[in-house]
Amino acid sequence: MGQALKSLAAGEDEKKAKEIGPIIDECYNRLFSDPSKFQNMDAFYHAICETIEEINKRLGNTQFHVPSTETFKEAFNKHHQTKDKDGNPKPLDKEEFGNILQAVIRDTGVTGVGAKDILFYIFGVPTTALVIKNSLIPSVLPNELFIPGITSATVFLLAKLGKI
């Protein structure tokens, strides 16, 4: 499953890729430790949603789209082929879970919710500060120095808060 996660994270931050593996392992152990919990597609869908939610919580700004039911069904039917001697599906093993999760995440995509915040802060804060400065004390500091200074301060603050 580690190799699958590395290919999933191709082009993404290596640190986040290393964090996803243990999160998936924890969720698998918690959600599928009792084979009787996995009885139908609804239980599987719920487990995937909980896993994605946990990944979102721990990674911060990166958000995974919640996939459609059809995406889940396709990934599940493709990767969960094991059946017992009576033809009933066996409980999901860790390898299948990782493959299904990888397929679901690839099909649904990733968005950076934090990107909207960053653009808002990097452009919004300096613009607002400039309007306030020009209305209160227009000649104290030239705009050529004030705008880069306030933009740099905003970026510094965003970095300290972990937003970028």
What does this protein look like?
- This protein has 164 residues and is mainly alpha-helical.
- The chain has two domains: 2-108, no CATH class; 114-160, no CATH class.
- Helices cover 68% and strands 4% of the residues.
- It is built from seven helices and two strands.
- It has a two-stranded antiparallel sheet with strand order 1-2.
- Helix 2 (14-31) runs antiparallel to helix 3 and helix 6 (113-136) packs antiparallel against helix 7.
- The longest helix has 24 residues, at 113-136.
- The chain is rod-shaped, with a radius of gyration of 23 Å.
- Mean pLDDT is 76; it is low at 1-9.
List keywords for this structure.
single chain; 164 residues; mainly alpha; two-stranded antiparallel ribbon; 2 strands
